[in-house]
Amino acid sequence: MKIAQIVCTFPPYRGGIGNSVYGFSRELAKGGARITIFTPNYSNISPDFNEDFKVKRINSVLSIGNAALIPKIIFELKDFDIIHLHLPFLGASFPVWFYSIFHPKKKLVLTYHMDLVSNGYRGVIFQLYKKFIIPLLLKRANKIIVSSFDYVESSDIKKYFHSKREKFFELPFGVDTQKFFPKEKNEDLLKKYYIDNNDKVILFVGGLDKPHNFKGLAILLKSIKEINNENIRLIIVGEGDLKQDYQNMAEGLGIAQKVIFTGGVVDAELPDYYRLADVFVLPSIDRAEAFGIVLLEAGASGISLIASNLSGVRTIINDGENGFLAEPGDAKDLAEKIRKIIFDENLRKRMGGKARQFAEEKYNWKKIVEKLIEEYKTIIYD
């Protein structure tokens, strides 16, 4: 089985869409599938990758943020059994649709990761993309995968979902439970960041760039001020062009001494950062957050969770069991949920144990990819 995975970003760039494609592709390759990842060749990304699948980075003719136009993709697709396009991807969507129209026997699979949300000129472009390009792809696709029906029920494609439900397949993303698992806190990191036994650690992991502004870090910073406790530490793992803005905000809120900006962290060290946490927080503010792979990584590490009550995201958290849901954009509500966990050791341990259990039972990559393989086979032999 030869599969082309087409995605707007891919590791080492940090982002949920690329990370999910990495997880799927790694497990598919272990099962014998021949996988090639096609992704734009961003100048700041190393092309080197040591895995059982191929990564081909295509030069773009135009790039605005992560929206790289790669029309050359149409010359790469002839030898594949399945073309799997991950949406949104403005720069590949029309070329892939165009290719598929002239090769109707090719099987086209879409994964609809999230709605595009923006304003200004980007908002205009996104609206045109959603109005004219997305419908063409949905109509042509043999199968449309979504991480949760909860998300798609209120998404930009909900009308198509309701009219062509048989085309849709619910498949959540997964987590490597052998990489992310509970373990004692790393003493070297505790010393590096001057964290002592009395400190309660709140963790955020995410991009600090403009495309990830929807992660809601500003709300989390405001919630730290609301908590107003000398023994809390907020660790922010991530890098990007808004980092200085967030540092300035922490200064302005008078909480800079409680906030630790680690910068980017290499992938091999990330599990130890999760294990530093007493609670992990994903404070996203709009529909651009459709799932939350970082929640799975934190949960697999045995950490209690707090996330915004957004469609899709809320499917990961059973409110009151493995964590709490907070109102999006509400710093006071978020602060209250954080307080409940960090100052109640029994609750924290119970929720962390449940988070690990859910990760093993519901989000193990191997189990998830087994379902994807069966779906691929059904599509090929249909």
Keywords:
2 domains, Rossmann fold, globular, 7-stranded parallel beta sheet, 382 residues
Question: Mind sketching the topology for me?
Answer:
Layout (H helix, E strand, L loop, with lengths): L1 E5 L9 H15 L3 E7 L13 E5 L3 E3 L2 E3 L12 E6 L2 H13 L4 E6 L7 H21 L2 E4 L2 H4 L5 H6 L4 E3 L16 H6 L7 E6 L11 H11 L4 E6 L5 H11 L5 E5 L6 H6 L3 E4 L10 H8 L3 E5 L14 E4 L4 H12 L2 H18 L2 H16 L2
Parallel strand pairs: 1-2, 1-6, 2-3, 6-7, 7-8, 8-9, 10-11, 10-13, 11-12, 13-14, 14-15
Antiparallel strand pairs: 4-5
Task: Give an account of the 3D structure.
- This protein is α/β, with parallel strands linked by helices and 382 residues long.
- The chain folds into two domains: 2-174 and 364-380, 3-Layer(aba) Sandwich (Rossmann fold), CATH 3.40.50; 187-362, 3-Layer(aba) Sandwich (Rossmann fold).
- The protein is built from 13 helices and 15 strands.
- The chain has helices spanning 16-30, 90-102, 120-140, 149-152, 158-163, 187-192, 217-227, 243-253, 270-275, 293-300, 331-342, 345-362, 365-380, and strands at 2-6, 34-40, 54-58, 62-64, 67-69, 82-87, 107-112, 143-146, 168-170, 200-205, 232-237, 259-263, 279-282, 304-308, 323-326.
- The strands form three sheets. Strands 3-2-1-6-7-8-9 form a seven-stranded parallel beta sheet, with helices on both faces. Strands 12-11-10-13-14-15 form a six-stranded parallel beta sheet, sandwiched between helices. It has a two-stranded antiparallel ribbon with strand order 4-5.
- Helix 1 (16-30) packs across helix 13, helix 2 runs parallel beside helix 3 and helix 7 (217-227) crosses helix 11 (331-342).
- The longest helix is centred in the middle third of the chain and has 21 residues, at 120-140.
- The radius of gyration is 21 Å and the shape is globular.
- The mean pLDDT is 94.
